[in-house]
Amino acid sequence: MTTRSTTAGALQEAKLPVQAKLAAGWTSLMFLYIYVDYLALYKPGVIDDILAGVVHDFDTGPTFVALALTLMAIPSLMILLSTTLPARVNRATNLVVATLFIPPTVYNADGESWSYSYFYGLSIGLECLLLAFILRAAWTWPRTAPATVDHARVRVHA
User: Fold this and answer.
1) Any idea what the Cα angle at residue 100 is, between residues 60 and 89, rounded to 5°?
2) CB burial class (10 A; 0-12, 13-18, 19+) of residue 22?
3) Number of C-alpha atoms within 13 angstroms, CB side, residue 106?
């Protein structure tokens, strides 16, 4: 007789598909992007610069707005793509896009005053951790076991 010993109230680990982990990572990154951009508006002079047509030393013309939209649209689309692309393409896409997003993430601290170093250090650190999570989830995507042949059952007819 086999007895099963379980701790009362022990929680069972749910196996989450890689696609769901990736979508959760991109969703978390988007929320963090939104809140960091929003909270940055509280820095003195930021709104005045925006009203003057300047963000991060860039003119806020059509090119800036289009590039900013593109930069934000990519992770937004990755939420959808992470749940719908076939596994092989999904893995490669997540590895490439997450890797390419690290430099623009780190660039956000360029030219900022040291008085906001904690804010930018924390936000960039968290964003990089989320990108690392996405990279790890995609890199360690489980593979299917190769088909094996049971040699004991294979008969050779002569």
Assistant:
1) 125
2) buried
3) 9
**Residue pair 130/33 in contact by the 8 Å Cβ criterion:** no
- The SS3 of residue 58 is strand
| pTM, 2 dp | 0.81
Pure H helices in the chain: 18-40, 46-51, 62-84, 87-107, 117-139
Enumerate the domain spans of the chain: 18-139
The pLDDT tens digits for 36-74 are 989 999 999 999 999 999 988 889 899 999 998 998 899
Closest by CA to 131, choosing from 106, 108, 112, is 106
pLDDT digits (tens, 9 = 90+) for 81-137: 999 999 999 999 999 999 999 998 988 777 777 888 899 999 999 999 999 999 999
